[in-house]
Design goal:
- This protein has helices spanning about 20-25, 40-50, 70-75, 80-85, 110-130, 140-150, 175, 190, and strands spanning about 35, 60-65, 90-100, 135, 155-165.
- By secondary structure, it is α+β, with helices and mostly antiparallel strands.
- It has one domain: NADH Oxidase (3-Layer(aba) Sandwich), CATH 3.40.109.
- The relative contact order is 0.24.
Length: about 190
C-alpha cells in the first residue's frame, strides 16, 4: 500500500550532485505526523527492508522492537518529554537494539551499532518508497527501555524511531513547528577527504 503524501517540503537548500537519486537527497525526518493505521503487511515490509542491510560477518545484530495499538502509550512514555510532544501522533514507535556479541563466536562485536545504522537507513528509505516518514530519536529513556524490553547484558538500546504519515507543520506546537523543515547538509568537501 502507498500512503498519501500530505506535505510538500522545500528541499531548495539541499544541493545533491546530479547523479544522486532524489529519494536519498529528499529523505528527511519530520516531527509532524497524522495518526494513520499502517497495515500489518506494510509493517512487515518496512522491517524486511532493514533485514537486508549489510553487517559484519553477516551477523545482523539488530532488533527492532515495535509498538502495537495496545502498548503504544507505554512506548511513548519511554521517550523524553520533548519527543513525546510530537511523537504521540506517529503511527508506530520502535526501539533499535543491538546484540553486543557475535552470534558465531561470542566475541564482542565493535561494529554492531554501525551495522544497526545501515539497517535503520534501509528501513527509512523503504518507508519513503511507501509514502511514510521516519524520525530517529536519541532522546529516549535508555535504561527504562532496556528494563521494559527485559534486555539482558548482551543487548544495548541504541535509539527510538517514530514512523508514520507526515502532517503539516501547523499541526505542531509553535516552538516545534518553526523547526519543521528539511535541514541542509554540510558541503561535500567537509565529508569527502582526499
Amino acid at each position: 500500500m502507498s500512503y498519501p503524501d500530505k506535505i510538500s517540503p522545500d528541499f531548495s537548500q539541499r544541493n545533491a550532485l546530479s547523479g544522486v537519486d532524489s529519494w536519498l537527497s529528499e529523505r528527511w525526518s519530520p516531527r509532524s505526523f497524522v495518526k494513520t493505521a499502517i497495515a500489518d503487511n506494510d509493517v512487515e515490509t518496512l522491517f524486511d527492508a532493514a533485514r537486508w542491510a549489510p553487517s559484519c560477518f553477516n551477523d545482523q545484530p539488530w532488533q527492532f522492537h515495535v509498538s502495537t495499538d495496545t502498548n503504544f502509550d507505554e512506548y511513548l512514555d519511554l521517550l523524553m518529554e520533548g519527543n513525546q510532544a510530537w511523537a504521540k501522533n506517529a503511527s508506530l514507535l520502535c526501539f533499535v537494539v543491538v546484540r553486543k556479541q557475535f552470534d558465531q563466536n561470542g566475541k564482542p562485536n565493535p561494529y554492531a551499532e554501525f551495522d544497526a545504522g545501515a539497517a535503520w537507513m534501509a528501513l527509512s528509505l523503504q518507508a519513503r518508497k511507501m509514502g511514510l516518514y521516519t524520525h530517529g530519536m536519541g532522546g529516549i529513556k535508555h535504561d527504562e527501555v532496556a528494563s521494559y524490553l527485559k534486555l539482558d547484558d548482551n543487548h544495548k538500546v541504541i535509539c527510538g524511531i517514530a514512523i508514520g504519515v507526515a502532517d503539516e507543520p501547523s499541526a505542531l506546537p509553535d516552538d516545534i513547528a518553526k523547526r519543521e523543515k528539511p535541514s541542509p547538509r554540510k558541503p561535500l568537501a567537509d565529508v569527502l577527504i582526499r
